[in-house]
Amino acid sequence: MRKLTTPFIGLSAGMLLVAPWIINAAPYESTMGLVQKVFYFHFPSAILFLTASVICGVHSFRFLFMKRQSADAWALSAAELGLLFGALTLVTGPLWARKAWGVWWVWDPRLTSSLLLFLIFASYLMLRKYGGPGSERLAAGMALFGMLNVPFIYVSVNVWRTLHPMTSVVPTLPTDMGIPLWFCFAAFTMLFLALLTLRATLELQRARVEALYLAEDEA
Amino acid sequence: MNRLTVVDVARHYGRRKALSQISFTCDAGEIVGLLGPNGAGKSTLLNVLATLVTPSRGSVQYGDRSASEGGAEIRGVIGMLGHDLFLYPELTARENLTFFAQLYGVTGVAGTVTAALDQAGLAERADDFVSSFSRGMRQRVALERALLHGPRLILLDEPFTGLDQASTAALIARLQERQQAGCLIILATHDLDVAEGLLSRAIYLKDGRMVGTDTESGGLADRYRRAIQ
Amino acid sequence: MSEFFRVAWHIVRKDMTVEIRSRELLFTTLLFAVSVVLVFSFAIVREGRAPDDVAAGILWVAISFAGTLAMGRTFERERYNDTLRALLLAPADRPAVYAGKLIGLLLLLGLVEIVLVPLVGLLFSAPIFSYPIMLITLLAAGTIGFAAVGTLFAAMLVRVRSRDTLLPVLLYPITIPVMIAGVRGTAALFQATPDEPMARFWIGLLIFWDAIFLTLALWTFEPVMTE
């Protein structure tokens, strides 16, 4: 994946540059008008936000139970991206909500769970930062708990009636709305993967430098 | 467990090397001293040997079992007396020993506890709170606590700190008795005078590395100085 | 298996012995919980009347704040003479140590709740006796969920310097689902016309959550506690 990071970044940058025009060309949604177009950024951000938490959880599991040292770098990278894409989701969401529902925020299950997941990422990173040596393992343990909340988020929309659009709306989108959505989705995903790889590589290299430093004066 | 084998053990905390390239072997019936200045890694090494800390590199073999497979079984043959004594000040001596005997799965708890209290010479103070004991008395209880389950590997971290002569002599006698019984004893200490007649082997540590080991007797202070310099 | 419970039981007994002597943890936690209830009541009650549903919220906030304090304190005791290490050195399954600490904490929180629930019932005229079994089940399920994660985190943080602030920071986001279920369920039971099916739903969810996270905690205890 490392080889693909540069083309991914280039492609996604290009696509995001072009995106406003494509989004503009998409039809207006009947009830919400212009504001609905935030959806094209909001939806990919939200999906990647959830994906980041799964990635973080999986690698935390590998680090903690399968003793894979390198997995820790990927967990950290995923957590930081989770924070970033979570922030994007939690900013674009209210922007849309204000116009569509009249309020900046409602305490329905999905919104609440997303905010919580965001807080979980934040506290994971705080533990890693302020936990002192050995905090990687502690944070990995904590990340597992965080990840198990993810299905909770997805189920919540389908179990409770809520203001949030039902998850099943996406497959039924008309094509001319579908195109900008998948376009943005592709752009965001490439960006996500590229950043994830770059950050994890950085972390792995830092660990290697440390190992080399430690091996320096050994016979 | 007859032999302890330590192979190329290292422990890093970030960029700090608490231990590196530690290798040695010792057998049952030895009293091994870990000697070195503060920060040399003695406590860390003891923690690694007690399986409380996993080494960043290298392995430890307890007889024919390695630390990674062992788990609860290996812990059953290890007894540790830490720097902080591992006793509950709000409980009496008897209660402390009883709790740990039960926890460590000792059969015949009451009998073992009474015997331990006698060994420590504290039978009359058995029902007093540990918080009211002097350092020496607490040490004695703590040592018996570590020995309750009849461990074959006994680890002690600075056991002579703050002890008066009588307590020191009692501790030495107890350790020698355990040595006769075929236990392997590893203790970290600063106190070269006391260690002088006690150790059958010395391992010198400085800045996390082994800078020497010998099994001579006598002239420990000089050997130490030479090794550490 | 019985080995596991035997070890856990001895730890519970030891903690109870220590606690009965000083009663420090019980009194301070209890007093703190009551203070929380009063502070929130003063903050929220207006013109002598509280908004609806506030009783449930205040109850659970008090439980979670007091619980966090108690967890920290329990492990602080084990840190004092490094006895936690002696516990980990025992030739027994390490999760048994976790279980012992958890049960001890649950007993403590149970005692606190026995005082808090009537207090809240008194202050807010909440019908605590209309569905006693459901209320008790709800409280039990919620407290178990909260304590299960909290005990693990408190144990994890024992060697970390900023443990006092990090414990709530880590614990609250992850246990908010428990809080939500607890509050909503309790509120459903405290309503003018209690919503039994709703309460039952939340209880079911809590039990599900508890099963998952208790298992996870037992599983992660050993890897997370070995340095």
Structure description:
The complex is a heterotrimer of chains A (219), B (229) and C (227). Chain A has 219 residues and is mostly helical. Chain A has one domain (2-23, 37-157, 174-211). Chain A has six helices and no strands. Chain A has helices spanning 5-25, 39-65, 71-100, 109-130, 135-159, 175-215. In chain A, helix 4 packs antiparallel against helix 5 (135-159). In chain A, 36% of the residues are buried. Chain B has a domain at 1-77 and 184-229: Rossmann fold. Chain B is built from nine helices and ten strands. Chain B has helices spanning 42-49, 67-70, 72-75, 93-103, 109-119, 135-147, 165-180, 192-198, 220-228, and strands spanning 3-13, 16-27, 31-35, 57-62, 65-66, 78-81, 153-157, 184-189, 201-206, 209-214. In chain B, the strands form two sheets. Chain B has a six-stranded mixed sheet, sandwiched between helices. In chain B, helix 7 links the parallel strand 7 (153-157) and strand 8 (184-189). The longest helix of chain B has 16 residues, at 165-180. The mean pLDDT of chain B is 88. Chain C has 227 residues and is mainly alpha-helical. Chain C has one domain (2-225). Helices cover 83% and strands 0% of the residues of chain C. Chain C has eight helices and no strands. Chain C has helices at residues 2-22, 24-44, 54-80, 83-88, 94-124, 132-156, 163-190, 196-225. Chains in contact: A-B, A-C, B-C. At the A-C interface, helix 4 and helix 5 of A face helix 6, helix 7 and helix 8 of C.
